[in-house]
Amino acid sequence: MSISAERAWQALSGMDNILILTHSTPDGDAIGSAFALYLALKKMGKTVFLHTDRVPSLMAYAVVPEAYGEGEPEHVVTVDVGDKKLLQEADRLRFGDRVDLNIDHHGTNVPFAKETYVDPSAAAAAEALYDIFTCGGLEIDREIAARLYTGVATDTGCFKYSNVTPKTLRVTAALLETGIDAAGMNTLLFDTKSPAYLAFERAALNGLRLCFDGKAALMVVTQQMYRDCGIDEADTQGVNAIPRTIEGVYAGLTLKEKKNGVYHASVRTKAPVIASEICKVFGGGGHPYAAGCELGTDLQAAQEKLLAAVREALSACGLL
Question: Domain end: 189, 224, 252, which one?
């Protein structure tokens, strides 16, 4: 059932012994939102714990170590999860049918919780959380604000993507007024690369190729690259944005081999090409210009299927 921000606050207020979940391979919005919600619920006097995949090392500042826990929750809340299948496998199997509330901002959200608060106009799940907190009159202190800022800043590409609205900037201003170190976080999130990441990026770029007269760019990332460069997959999320940065490219594509051998496509596009429509063909989704889907374990077939969908999208927009 779709609900309002006010009802989402009421639902949270009525819960206790709460488990917070987010999607596998969490990005900054998932991490920031999960820990912001944890801190808010603790402030409300709730018993709460969370599960996440490994957090990228440059986002370690957002982690609250004591938040992690195991046990049998009475209630389950998910944040930044557009589809139940995006949960970590163990959590999906154990808790996927027990989610009481899902807080999200993806327009392609596939409902799976008893109650769902989705605001597609929000730049990030963290912005949607801010609205819920303010509905309830919760004091957003500096610790909560830092996590919310992480979510908003990363999902907007440091405020350069088209999902930034006047409201997004007003919310960000309110977070800055708590005294958070936004400049320090921005340095870590956007201007810091480890030597291992640079080696990995170089390996990925070596295989990048332009398609359709330079209108699309495709890059493939394998598990062997992670091993060769001595880097964890969690620390390589920034690579997804690279293909779209090439001049003339409307569809930037990154095929990432997961540990189970399945290839996940990260699609980043520029108007008028819609990434979520491309990924929808394969049962995926996301944002209009940043989406994802899974394409099986055969790399050659995955490339062919993805490029066929991209060709169709480019043609439909009059670009081919």
Answer: 189
* 126 within 8 A of 31, measured Cβ to Cβ: no
pLDDT digits (tens, 9 = 90+) for 188-207: 999 999 999 999 999 999 99
- The SS3 of residue 222 is coil
Task: Classify residue 93 by burial, with Cβ atoms within 10 Å: 0-12, 13-18, 19+.
Answer: exposed
Question: What does the DSSP assignment read for 30-79?
Answer: HHHHHHHHHHHHHHTT--EEE--SPPPGGGGGG--GGGB--S--SEEEEE
Domain that holds residue 231: 195-316
Q: Is the pTM for the entire model greater than 0.85?
A: yes
Q: Is 264:256 a contact under the CB 8 Å cutoff?
A: yes
Q: What are phi and psi of 127, to 5 degrees?
A: -70, -40
| Residue 53 neighbours by CB under 8 Å, 6+ apart | 24, 25, 26, 88, 234
CATH number for the domain harbouring residue 101:
3.90.1640.10
Cα-only R_g, the chain: 19
